Amino acid sequence: MKVFALLGLALPFVAAKVSYDGYKAFHIDTPEDFDHVEAKLQDINYVSMACESNHKGFDIAVSPESLAAFEKLGLKVDVLHEDLGADIALEGTLSPYVSARKEADVGLAAAALPDLSYFNSYHQFQDHLDFLDDLQAAFPSNSEIFTAGNSLEGRPIQGIHLYGASGPGTKPAIIWHGTVHAREWIVAPTVEYMAYKLVEGYQRGDAKVKAALNSYDFYIMPVVNPDGFTYTQSGDRLWRKNRQRRSSSSCVGTDVNRNWPYQWNIPGGSSTNPCAETYRGASAGDTPENQVLTNHTLSVGEAQGIKFYVDWHAFSQLILLPYGYSCSAKVDNLSKQMALAKGVSQAIKAVNGLDFVYGPTCETIYQTAGGSNDWVADIAGAELAWAVELRPGPGGSGGFVIPPSNIIPSGKENWAGMLRLFETF
């Protein structure tokens, strides 16, 4: 999601945990005069949470001391959180994942699928690694764990490689990245749920799943910004970027999804301000995380070709196609991609009734420079390169901070969308 650093909010490298106790979160409608509304907020102490498509609205969390002044502005708002800190506390009750395989000390051939109770709560970073290990152990002849590289702080950027009867590395690739924006907690378990369904369906003999795994190699990486993700649990729940420090600024972090080395420095699609949420970095591809992702994606693409790429995000319920860097440039197979995205959107809606809007990124939401799907489309040569924004919808209850009860519904609806896509490639 694009967020506006209207406060220039980017915290110094400190260990203290940021408190949002007493902050009240609002969705502000700005159908015609975004800049005018933004100007009204200059004297309000708030945190910018997300911007709706085409500047039609945005979400903010107002500090307790500014609530009275904010309410006097008379803006058209919907309340998202009465007390953001209280909702974070509820959401952030992390249940440790206990690996049944490790507890029983069983061999790989005897391993069972991870229990679905994993998806009843959010988890720490290590739990996500353990879950992938257990999923691989349950599917030992058709999967492998891979580490594409390490983050700035040395955490593994890891994934699971799933494949069918002909073995690994022989078919076009499907690549899924998740959690490049650290605060988007719903993303990793949603991606993991779909990985689970691939394994479970193949073992069960589901014809659609077997056809997908026998036709494509899946490279699934649920957490590609592990430092930022870890910091959302230890420091600032609303942190977006990585944890890279620059000698020129006391502000921390680069937006890894504005750092891809393609159309990186075009005006309007990112920020040159190190304190901004969309800070693009000092040079194209200068974050360790982006270097890991580009190297791995190029390696897979050169060896196998890339059929389909998704950068999974939250929130706003969107299916975003190339291009983000320009509203006039058109990807060559746009009509095909639009037809496929329509089918995915319809399949998603059939599950829980949620509408996912689809279209080229720049036209559908806003301009983005140095974004993942543009690079994967034009540099890595993927046939399809999308970004998908999960639930809730724009201005929907919760935003980034939503109860873990959303995980399985999110997984089910997006799994339905992916199954539709696999059938209609």
UniProtKB/TrEMBL annotation:
Source domain of life: Eukaryota
GO CC annotations on file: extracellular region
Active site: 389
Secretion signal, residue range per the UniProt entry: 1-16
Any one GO molecular-function label of the UniProt entry: metallocarboxypeptidase activity
Compartment list: Secreted
GO biological process: proteolysis
Ranges where the Peptidase M14 domain occurs: 121-425
Pfam families: Peptidase_M14 (PF00246)
UniProt key word Zinc: yes
InterPro entries tied to this protein: CARBOXYPEPT_ZN_2 (IPR057247), Peptidase_M14 (IPR000834)
Keyword Disulfide bond: yes
Record keywords: Carboxypeptidase, Disulfide bond, Hydrolase, Metal-binding, Metalloprotease, Protease, Secreted, Signal, Virulence, Zinc
Cofactor: Zn(2+)
Function: Extracellular metalloprotease that contributes to pathogenicity.
PANTHER family per UniProt: PROTEASE FAMILY M14 CARBOXYPEPTIDASE A,B (PTHR11705), SLL0236 PROTEIN (PTHR11705:SF143)
Similarity comment text for this entry: Belongs to the peptidase M14 family.
Name of the protein in its database record: Carboxypeptidase M14A
Organism lineage string: Eukaryota, Fungi, Dikarya, Ascomycota, Pezizomycotina
